[in-house]
Amino acid sequence: MPYLFLAFIVYPLAEIASMVVMADWIGAGWVFLALLASALIGIGMLRHHRIAVAWSLVNDLKSGRLTPQSLFWVARYYIAAILFIVPGFIGDIAAVVMLLPWGRRGDAKVPPMSSDTLEGEYRRVDPRNDAQRRLDER
């Protein structure tokens, strides 16, 4: 527990120090514009891609490919959006790293169907009702 408290103290101080260094390096106006742009990117991610991410989960669920990796991708996406909104360059770098496609596989492993399963359509015919009727007649 003391480490979590320490993180809440160290992280804001590190963000403030990174903003001071960047303002000294490129200028305060450019730092302000960069922070404003990153906040707008984060807000845009939360507003406009919320439905796309939800549909991605629904499609994974329908196709039977819902895995912990796909859930982790959604969590990373939303955490990255929040890190873009929070002012600071360390959070922005962490957000970009979280958006990189590591750990996301194209297709999850779907268990193959057993070889003794035969798929097709059938129609039940009761032979007691009509003994003279052939099965291929309709």
How would you describe this protein?
Keywords: Membrane, Transmembrane, Transmembrane helix. This is FxsA family protein. Pfam families: FxsA. By secondary structure, the protein is mainly α. The chain has one domain (2-99). The protein contains five helices and no strands. The protein has helices at residues 2-26, 28-48, 50-62, 68-85, 89-99. Helix 2 (28-48) runs antiparallel to helix 4. The mean pLDDT is 81.
Secondary structure layout:
Layout: H1 2-26, H2 28-48, H3 50-62, H4 68-85, H5 89-99
Helix pairs in contact: 1-2, 2-4, 4-5
Biased composition (Basic and acidic residues): 120-138
Transmembrane segments: 26-46, 77-102
InterPro entries: FxsA
Global shape: elongated
Report helical residue fraction. Answer: 55-70%
Number of helices: 5
Extended strand count: 0
Instruction: Return the domain count.
Output: 1
Q: What order do the SSEs take from the amino end to the carboxyl end, as H and E? A: HHHHH
Give the DSSP E fraction (strand runs of 2 or more residues).
under 5%
- Give the low-pLDDT segments: none
Average pLDDT taken over every residue: 81
Keywords: Membrane, Transmembrane, Transmembrane helix
Protein name: FxsA family protein
Region (Disordered): 108-138
Biased composition (Basic and acidic residues): 120-138
